[in-house]
TrEMBL record:
Keywords: ATP-binding, Nucleotide-binding, Transferase. The keyword Methyltransferase does not apply. This is Phosphotransferase involved in threonylcarbamoyladenosine t(6)A37 formation in tRNA. Signal peptide: none annotated. Residues 22-244 form the Aminoglycoside phosphotransferase domain. It comes from hydrothermal vent metagenome. GO terms for molecular function: ATP binding; transferase activity.
Length: 328
């Protein structure tokens, strides 16, 4: 039986075949797929998450859903689940991602709402995996393997490897010195849904960890899919700082440095992930997002002297790449 037939059979087993009109809803950068169905009794739509168990473990999603809903952030309620088959029936948070409606007029309210939700998330107690040095390093290794080696078709020499390793150590140290809180890991405009009540709806949080306080701020304000002027970003950071509970007092300059260096770690990882999505998974659309991601890194390098060696390394590898036609 193919996957879709398996899903339909599971759906028919629920509540006397109440759910009909199965339609594709979306897919993400993982192996998960999403479908929208209609309940004949209340005429409301619901979402089915299809997470093939050999590729995706549904249990972290279930755990994190409960944690998020406990702090009254708008995550979908889980109505039915079959962990063995990898099917979940969820509330439908709608089809209005932030990305589709963000503009100069709407941004202030939408981002203030997102900050308020993030502050609640950061009060979740830690029962999650640690965003430790090993995980940070593993993520950054994707940059060399998939962006430099595969996308740019270049190999680092011994001196360049030493430069990159020193940068990695700096970025890991920056992450480790921050307060450790709940981290969504992809708290950006494609994973925040505009909702009439308790905006925003939050999705795609199954990879949440306990890690650096600035990480989700980077995902939100240095979003790989939309760019904002630095002055707007610092304005939103000011609002975040003003709303922090007193026992977490952080100076602006400290947060900004954490934020900028954390951004380099995230965006090195993302360069690798976007390249991997293209070459391994056939999702070429992610190559379109490489230029902005790279720009964020270069901007940070221009702000901090200790990142200058990374800028030189990037300039050297890009200029010498055999694959110049696809350089970001």
């Amino acid at each position: 039986m193919d996957r879709l037939s398996q899903l339909k059979q599971w759906l028919e087993s629920l509540a006397e075949n109440t759910y009909t009109n199965l339609q594709p809803a979306s897919a993400d950068a993982s192996f998960r797929q999403y479908f929208r169905v209609t309940n004949k009794n209340d005429n409301k739509t619901y979402i089915i998450m299809d997470a093939p168990p050999e590729k995706e473990d549904s249990r972290p999603f279930m755990l994190v859903t409960n944690l998020i809903r406990r702090v009254e952030v708008n995550a979908p309620n889980i109505i039915a689940v079959d962990v063995k088959q990898g099917f979940l029936l969820l509330d439908d948070l709608g089809n209005r991602p932030y990305l589709d409606e963000l503009n100069d007029d709407s941004a202030e309210k939408l981002y203030i709402d997102a900050i308020e939700a993030l502050l609640k998330l950061q009060n979740i107690d830690g029962v999650l995996p640690a965003y430790d040095a090993q995980l940070l390093q593993t993520e950054m290794d994707l940059f060399e393997t998939w962006y430099l080696n595969r996308h740019l078709d270049t190999e680092l020499n011994k001196a360049q490897k030493a430069v990159l390793n020193n940068i990695f150590k700096l970025l890991i140290k920056n992450a480790e010195e921050q307060p450790q809180v709940f981290v969504h890991r992809d708290y950006h405009s494609r994973n925040l849904m505009i909702t009439d009540d308790n905006n925003p709806g939050v999705i795609d949080y199954q990879d949440a960890v306990f890690g650096p306080i600035s990480y989700d701020l980077v995902s939100l304000f240095k979003d790989c899919y939309i760019e904002w002027p630095r002055e707007k970003i610092e304005h939103w950071l000011d609002h975040y700082l003003a709303r922090l509970t007193p026992h977490r007092f952080i100076e602006k300059r400290t947060l900004v440095r954490w934020f900028d260096l954390m951004g380099v770690q995230r965006h090195l990882k993302v360069l690798g992930i976007f390249a991997r999505l293209n070459y391994r998974d056939g999702k070429a659309q992610y190559l379109d997002d490489l230029p902005l991601t790279l720009k964020y890194i270069i901007d940070a390098c221009n702000r901090y002297d200790e990142l200058k060696p990374l800028k030189l390394l990037l300039e050297d590898t890009i200029s010498q790449s055999k694959n110049s036609s696809t350089i970001a």
